[in-house]
Write a structure and sequence with these properties.
four-stranded mixed β-sheet, Glycosyltransferase, Glutaredoxin, alpha+beta, five-stranded mixed β-sheet, 4 domains
Length: 688
């Protein structure tokens, strides 16, 4: 193993992932015209490696192969090697991941593609060791074989690439014919029910991912149907995820996924988008059930993000690594002796007994703190300790353990700022601010929103995708627009600052212009002004993150109601219709789309508040209304301030909704009719 004393071209990049490879002996290029021109000039195939900075197996492949002189010699002799950060270039990643899935039936990172200088892929895989290992061929076997075939007949390989592109394009067609209907809502529930694990929660077998948007859909399904099983699935899953080791019981926040069915052993990296989406769902579950535990989990996630994942200017970082000191999970695990030494015998043994920290361990001889076998309430009964006393003692111990853990070598932090992921965190913070009456959460969301508007929006209004180290780069993708607009809408409802809703309307219009498919409907993943790859995909499937197309449908439906824009309402219908066939084939894979469909097909509800947003009577009214789970409602303010004229211009419904008797006034409009105005807080109890 070695690293090169002279850096390669990646040294000039901003991406933490690319910079991790800047001293490899491999002569890496970033994705650039220079790389492809070199490949054409030298008639060499391209070795494309895609990953991200907190990816465990990316680290493994780097240490085994890309730091190795023998592997580097093969790559430098026979290939032009390109490194891509999937989080900076999700357009490139989406396309070539689709190629890998088409060729191998699976995907993941690191993603390995070999292609022609014209970007035609002809070989794909994920992690490869240096030599044959784990039943996999090694790079030392693969690279010479492919180079030899290229030298024999590169024209035939290029034809193979054409065939692979054609197959991939056919798989990427999301505009399948079909009729959009509420039947998909029922079918999705049945599919979730069939996949549900009644013992540990979640859906399907290990590994288990949080996919909290599935749970958010099920809350809406329960609201629509009253089917108790939907609520059971939500609560069982939320409870089990929190109690498992996937939740960091010392420092808070969720890891990316669980490697086992019990949620015990996580893949330890923490992603901003997971924690944003889980905040959203725990908040919604709190609103629906009133259970304080869900609010506490959401607040702990937020505390983690604001403490460890927030830039000094208020924007949010991408992720924290699974590895520290070269070992996965080392930062997070414990032994009983260490706990007892820190806390003393009595408190240490108590903490170990409650959180399953044992001499034998539950992860490679160490222990991941968890509550899988019992709740805190169960532990209080078993220990004969009053619940409040036990909670206080465990919290005091947690703080001591956290302070000690802070002295350990921390996992690497990817401090890129992505517009799309920040949009999700802004959305989550705004939802929490509304439900919990925590204006400080709205303030944190506003700082991030202002950062995007200031640093990630060009003078011509074009949103950019990534900011790091003073540089904004890469034309924004549909996810950047859709998730940011989602955040702006929620933040407007949390603050009633009309400028936020104005910006949401403006960016939504830009999104339709940049990404809209005028022939078949829907939104392409990258804009017409971006680099044109071998096809322009339209993503509708919900993976770890929901689809930007689905978020856009929900946004458009809400903005159409705010602005009474008939054209935008029509666009919403077209957006839903464009993907009807895809959703019909596999409804449970499209949870956010179903949330948008449920929203459009439910009786509309508009809640107008009139008054001074800074006065206690209006704040109390707002708090009482927004504490509830009302997924089909939109909230708006007719302010008795200088913003009043701008608000009336953007939101026609405000024009006759005025303050009555000098008191904050609520106008509740449901199913196209408005109730009598309300000025008494108690009268709001009668509003469903």
């Amino acid at each position: 193993m070695t690293t090169n004393p002279i850096p390669n071209r990646l040294i000039a990049e901003k991406s933490p992932y690319l910079l991790q490879h800047a001293y490899n002996p491999v002569k890496w290029f970033p994705w650039s015209d220079e790389a492809f021109e070199s490949a054409r000039r030298e008639n060499k195939p391209i070795f494309l490696s895609i990953g991200y900075s907190t990816c465990h197996w990316c680290h493994v492949m780097n240490h085994e192969s890309f730091e190795d002189e023998e592997v580097a010699a093969l790559l430098n002799k026979d290939y032009i090697s390109i490194k891509v950060d999937r989080e900076e270039r999700p357009d490139v990643d989406h396309l070539y991941m689709s190629v890998c899935q088409a060729l191998t039936g699976q995907g993941g990172w690191p993603l390995t593609i070999i292609m022609t200088p014209e970007k035609k892929p002809f070989f794909a895989g994920t992690y490869f060791p240096k030599g044959r290992k784990y039943g996999r061929k090694g790079l030392m076997d693969i690279l010479p074989q492919i180079a030899g075939k290229w030298d024999e007949d590169s024209a035939q390989i290029s034809q193979m690439g054409d065939q692979i592109i054609a197959e991939t394009q056919s798989r990427l067609i999301a505009n399948l014919q079909g009729e959009i209907s509420e039947e998909s809502l029922e079918q999705a529930f049945q599919m979730y029910d069939n996949m549900f694990d009644p013992q540990y929660g979640g859906f399907g077998d290990a590994p288990k991912f949080p996919t909290s948007h599935n749970l958010s859909y099920l809350l809406r399904y329960y609201t629509r149907t009253g089917n108790e099983q939907a609520l059971t699935m939500v609560e069982k899953t939320l409870d089990s995820m929190y109690r498992g080791g996937m939740y960091d019981h010392i420092g808070w926040g969720f890891a990316r996924y669980s490697t086992d069915e019990r949620w015990l052993v996580p893949h330890f990296e923490k992603m901003l988008y997971d924690n944003a989406l889980l905040t959203m769902t725990y908040i919604e579950a709190y609103q629906f059930t009133g259970k304080q535990q869900y609010a506490e989990v959401a607040e702990q996630i937020i505390a983690y993000v604001l403490r460890d994942m927030t830039d000094e200017h208020g924007a949010f970082y991408c992720a924290e690594d699974a590895d520290s000191e070269g070992e996965e999970g080392k930062f997070y695990v414990w032994k009983p002796a260490e706990i007892i030494q820190l806390l003393g015998e009595e408190e240490g043994e108590l903490y170990c007994s409650v959180y399953d920290i044992t001499d034998s361990g539950n992860f490679e001889g160490n222990s991941i703190p968890n509550l899988i076998e019992w709740t805190i309430e169960d532990a209080a009964r078993l220990q004969g300790i009053p619940l409040n006393e036990l909670r206080a003692r465990l919290e005091a111990s947690r703080r001591k353990l956290f302070e000690h853990r802070e002295k350990r070598i921390h996992p690497h932090k990817d401090d890129k700022i992505l517009t799309s992921w920040n949009g999700l965190m802004i959305m989550a913070l705004a939802k929490a601010a509304k439900a919990l009456n925590k204006p400080e959460y709205a303030e944190a969301a506003r700082r991030a929103s202002d950062f995007i508007a200031r640093e990630l929006r060009r003078e011509d209004g074009r949103i950019l995708a990534r900011y790091r180290d003073g540089e904004a780069a890469y034309l924004g993708y549909v996810d950047d627009y859709a998730f940011y607009v989602w955040g702006l809408i929620e933040l407007y409802e949390a603050t009633f600052d009309i400028e936020l809703l104005q910006l949401a309307v403006e960016l939504n219009a830009d999104m339709l212009t940049l990404f809209g498919d005028q022939e078949q409907g829907g939104l392409f993943f990258y804009g017409h002004d971006g680099e044109q790859l071998f096809t322009r995909p339209k993503e509708i499937y919900d993976g770890a993150m929901p689809s930007g197309n689905s978020a856009a449908a929900l946004n458009m439906a809400k903005l159409a109601r705010y602005t009474y824009d008939a054209g935008l309402s029509q666009k919403t219908d077209e957006q839903l219709q464009a993907f009807a066939g895809s959703v019909q084939k596999y409804p449970s894979g499209h949870a956010l789309f179903l949330i948008a469909l449920d929203y459009v097909n439910s009786a509309p509800s508009e809640i107008v508040l009139a008054g001074d947003p800074n006065k206690p009577d209006l704040q109390a009214m707002k708090e009482k209304l927004q504490r509830r789970f009302m997924p089909h409602a939109i909230y708006m303010l007719h302010p008795s301030t200088e913003q009043g004229e701008a608000a009336r211009k953007l939101i026609p419904l405000l024009r006759d909704k005025v303050v009555l008797g000098g008191r904050a006034t609520a106008y509740i409009c449901e199913n196209f009719a408005c109730h009598a105005p309300v000025t008494d807080l108690d009268e709001l109890d009668d509003i469903e």
